[in-house]
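Q: I have 136 residues here and want to know how they pack in 3D. Can you give me a structure?
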Amino acid sequence: MRLKVPLLLLVMLLASARNSAGSGETVKDFWQTFKRSVITRDKDAVARLSRFPIGMSYGKRSIRTRAEFIRRYAEVFNEQSDAAQCFDRKEPEIDPQNPKRFSIACPDEAGNEVVIYEFERGRQGWKFVRLDNINE
């Protein structure tokens, strides 16, 4: 009986750690939640689905905190591309060199798919990590 309690606690602890790390979440599940949050402009949900600092290209400084992300939300999702419209039509492109990364390419004003949203899977599950514009 004495061995059963520590063993049960160990099993529960491992199960809890696995769930908190988002290890069971698929790319598809994460993407559906993320894109729905962007389309509905749920800034709090998008922030929870992001890892800080969020890398920014084209000479803009990284977004370091959740509060800064909320303030700069339009810069990330509306300034160079209409992310909500793009995300509604796009599916993730898994990095063939690293299955723990995927991206979504969106068009700029000229219609060129150069605005890239990048995502990575880490200990906390899938997260939005970077915005890039390959023209800048």
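Q: Anything worth noting?
A: The chain has one domain: 24-133. Residues 4-20 form the longest helix (17 residues).
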